[in-house]
Amino acid sequence: GEVGQSSLMSSASLEDAKKAFEKKFREKTKNSWAARENFVAQPGKYTLIEVQLGAGQDHDDVGGLQVDGVDGDKVCKQRVLPCTLDKATQDLVSLIFSSDMFRDAMQTMNIDVKKMPLGKLSKQQIARGFEVLGELEAVLQEQPPQAARLENLSSHFYTIIPHNFGRARPPPINSPNLLRAKKDMLLVLADIEMAQSLQAQKVKEEEEEEVIHPLDQDYALLCCQLSLLDPASREYQLVQIYVTQTGYKLHILNIWQVARDGEDERFKAHDHLQHRRLLWHGTNVAVVAAILKSGLRIMPHSGGRVGKGIYFASENSKSAGYVGCTSKKVGIMFLTEVALGKPYRITCDNPMLCQPPAGYDSVLACGQMEPDPAQDEEVLLDGKKVLVCQGKPIPMPTYKDSSFSQSEYVIYQESQCRIRYLVQLQF
């Protein structure tokens, strides 16, 4: 979109200025300013965008002393304590809370960051975007879909969630694939909003002489423990082989062992499930903070070829396709222990699934290729046997006609997985 016209009008009084504004508001929206709480968007007119104030600015360099505030002649000076995190973890925390990274991610999705700046995005705005996408989905299911209705609803969506297509006309959301892409975009925005809200919760210790380093504060917000692995350790080498054998030529920068608060207890509900695998999950770097804080989630508007669940892969290259990198091509992937139990095997899409069939615990979309099962290595994690792929993908004759080229493992209960490792890669 392009910047619209603006004008500066002189008024004899504040009341005259208010009246002029309310008149212009009605002309542009066909709504009364006084009744804006019950705003109804009108075709061809402007709509009302809800924004919220937010905190959480980047803290690139923190000095030793800060002037916190002035109260009469009193000046409270604070000393920022040294960061307790190792350098790699400092850089990771800085990255996953970086305002520049969030802005880059939004711009990559064609979001207009001037009209929808960081810290001003509201949960209500995202919810309204999902509502419009729900209406679009209903129209797309009609036979044939009404083109004019799709145009109007698409325009309404782009008004609620401002996009920047330059001088190009915003494309109508007129296909299931484009609709899915916009839903995925809103899911990313929701997680960005969560990360920004987390930072806004940081307590300002204005009366303290010593304050915790901002990166330590951000790390504490995640409610998880990140332990950097030694490249010489067996764990690191196991992951390294997994990447090399099943992925593209990606370079591992760092690997952290992850322990999310409460996730181990939740996972114990599935102790009876014996078939367990360490599987890949790729994601946008902009949602990593939200995942570390809240875990891998089944969102109300999520979906895919195998229905509404959490998707994993046995091949790094499969999950790598879902990674959203930084401008420097740094991406983040998770290795997750998944309690698969008895998997229900399928060879064609079934997007309506929301749970495994009776008697099964998960769904396995069988790929034409699969890492050589003979090379799988068994490791013990908290006393449980977990399989880790260590071989190269080989053809699976039984599934040569499958619609899935690579296998996908899907669970429909969030508690059936536990994040074990965070892997930072150079793409």
Automatic annotation (TrEMBL):
Keyword NAD carried by entry: yes
Main location: nucleus
Alphabetized InterPro entries for the sequence: ARTD/PARP, Poly(ADP-ribose)pol_cat_dom, Poly(ADP-ribose)pol_reg_dom, Poly(ADP-ribose)pol_reg_dom_sf, WGR_dom_sf, WGR_domain
Native species: Anhinga anhinga
Pfam families in the record: PARP, PARP_reg, WGR
Keywords: DNA damage, DNA repair, Glycosyltransferase, NAD, Nucleotidyltransferase, Nucleus, Transferase
Gene Ontology BP annotations: double-strand break repair; protein poly-ADP-ribosylation
A GO CC annotation given for this chain: site of double-strand break
GO molecular function annotation: NAD+ poly-ADP-ribosyltransferase activity; NAD+-protein mono-ADP-ribosyltransferase activity; nucleotidyltransferase activity
Broad enzyme group: transferase
Compartments, as annotated in UniProt: Nucleus
Catalytic activity, EC: 2.4.2.-
All copies of domain WGR, residue ranges: 1-46
Record lineage: Eukaryota, Metazoa, Chordata, Craniata, Vertebrata
Residue ranges constituting the PARP alpha-helical domain according to the UniProt record: 82-200
Superkingdom assignment: Eukaryota
Protein's gene: Parp3
Sequence ranges assigned to domain PARP catalytic in this UniProt record: 213-427
Protein name according to UniProt: Poly [ADP-ribose] polymerase
